[in-house]
Design a protein that fits this description.
A two-stranded antiparallel ribbon has the order 1-2. Helix 3 (41-59) crosses helix 5, helix 4 packs antiparallel against helix 8 and helix 7 runs antiparallel to helix 8. The protein is mainly alpha-helical. The protein starts with a strand and ends with a helix. Strand 1 (2-4) and strand 2 (11-13) form a beta hairpin. It has helices spanning 17-21, 24-29, 41-59, 66-91, 101-114, 119-135, 140-146, 149-173; strands at residues 2-4, 11-13. It has eight helices and two strands, in the order E-E-H-H-H-H-H-H-H-H.
């Protein structure tokens, strides 16, 4: 369903399962459906990313090593630029809330550096990551406004992962 976005001359497509399944870029950008959550899709996408990381690492620890995750993250970032660019164009909003691949990749960065960690530490990492992603402290807000398209969508969440890891580094140093 296309609707005219108020104040803009662009039609916005409402994300749905049908839309997501219409192109591989949409499936990826919308976090395999986790971004279609009607409430807090960014949080839902981050939770899904956490689950994927946890299950794959637990099930196949000899395959999903920090090195493998590093390769997945770099490749996922590059592919995510394309997927988010395409999905944003097709939705009519460059950084639509249903696009959560950026949250997944950025949270995987946090987990790679924190693991092994107990569930409490992982939960705190999740909460702090979501806080920084929503609040967008400087310079994240600057990058969010400056960089548009797929790169901009992916990059601001990297800032949130950096702040989360910085907070944990300071906490561990004290």
């Amino acid at each position: 369903m296309n609707t005219l976005d108020p104040g803009q001359d662009v039609y916005v497509t409402k994300p749905s399962a049908r839309f997501m399944l219409s192109h591989p870029a949409h499936i990826l950008a919308q976090g395999f459906g986790s971004g279609l959550s009607p409430v807090v899709p960014g949080t839902t996408g981050t939770l899904f990313g956490w689950l994927v990381f946890y299950v794959l690492t637990l099930r196949w620890p000899s395959i999903f090593t920090p090195l493998t995750w590093g390769i997945i993250i770099v490749a996922g970032f590059v592919i995510g630029i394309w997927a988010c660019q395409r999905t944003g164009q097709d939705l009519g909003i460059s950084d639509h809330g249903s696009m959560v691949w950026d949250e997944m990749i950025a949270f995987w960065i946090v987990l790679v550096f924190l693991m092994p960690a107990d569930i409490s530490t992982q939960l705190w990492a999740f909460l702090w990551f979501r806080f920084f992603d929503m609040v967008k402290p400087p310079p994240i807000r600057y990058f969010d406004r400056r960089f548009k398209g797929g790169f901009g969508v992916m990059w601001d969440d990297i800032g949130a992962s950096f702040y989360t890891l910085l907070l944990f580094a300071l906490w561990r140093a004290i």
